[in-house]
Amino acid sequence: MSQYPVSTAKGIRDGVNYLLSGPAGLGQFFQGFSTYQTGYLTGNFRVPFTSTNPVALYVAPITLGTSSNPDPYTWIFNFATAQSQPPFSLGNGVRIAGVADSNYDGHYSKTGVANCTTTQLVLKYGYTVPLEPNSSGGTATYYITESASTPSPADIAWNSTDCNARIITTSATDRVFVSAQLNSIISYTCTTDSVLEYSVAVNRYVGELNQDPTNPDYLFFYDFTTGYKKYSYNLTAGSGTLPNIETIYTTVVDNPTPNYYWYILEVAFYVPSGDLQVTQCEFAQRSLSSQVVKQ
């Protein structure tokens, strides 16, 4: 129990503890990220999730020449013709299709682009796969737009932003207060009239130890969507940019069980009809903050 006026060192400690204890106090474990600096979504599975330079979120299919698989983690694709500049960025989840050996086909998203030049693309998986003989043909492309109606939040193909916070809860009565804001400017292209469904959410991920005694670390898995908003747009054929989309979560109150959590502000793009591709997503402002309040 703290009291006023404070006359001892113990009184100071008690007062600070009371202030941090909540719910009337300030709470504990302040974490977050906030910036007014313009950023661009990378669409990468791993950091960086946002870049200060414009990032292309759509690369039209590029014809491939030969393909090879030198080790269980690495896949190398040579372009049929040299490109004017490297078409893919580090971390892009490139999609390969139509290779003579169909085992090369797939979405390389768990590590993605390890290197890209005007003539060659090197992709890596985050896990081992059987070696394949050299092959040829097919195409390489990159996009983050899903051609389907938006599923439930737990099944959405979320793209992370750099707005995140990691916190620890230690009691069943702990409350996590999360606030977030995202101002988005979306550019697109389509050859037919299309519908775009844009979702913004505060998602909660739970941390689990990787069970590696030589390199212990936490792996995070989707756990729950604590805040969710969806916007729908009917767009005519052509290219354009949507007006600023402002999403604000003033206070999201979460009550997870005791554990280690990662809250991330994330976005997703779905096209239930048409052939729209999101070409760029600019963030004019973005922030997320969290704190744990003991009760």
Give structural notes.
- About 5% of the residues lie in helices and about 55% in strands.
- By secondary structure, it is mainly beta.
- It has 2 domains: about 25-55 and about 145-295, Sandwich (Jelly Rolls), CATH 2.60.120; about 60-145.
- Strand 4 (about 60-70) and strand 5 form a beta hairpin.
- Residues about 15-25 have low confidence and may be disordered.
Any key phrases for this structure?
Jelly Rolls, seven-stranded antiparallel sheet, mainly beta, 2 domains
Helix content: under 10%
- Determine and state the CATH class of the largest domain: Mainly Beta
Number of self-contained structural domains? 2
Helix/sheet category: mainly beta
> Which stretches are low in confidence, meaning pLDDT under 50 for 5 or more residues running?
16-26
Order of helices and strands: HEEEEEEEEEEEEEEEEEEE
Our estimate of the beta-strand percent is over 45%
DSSP E strands, number: 19
Distance between the amino and carboxyl termini:
15 Å
From the spread of the alpha carbons, the general shape counts as globular
Instruction: Report Rg.
Output: 23 Å
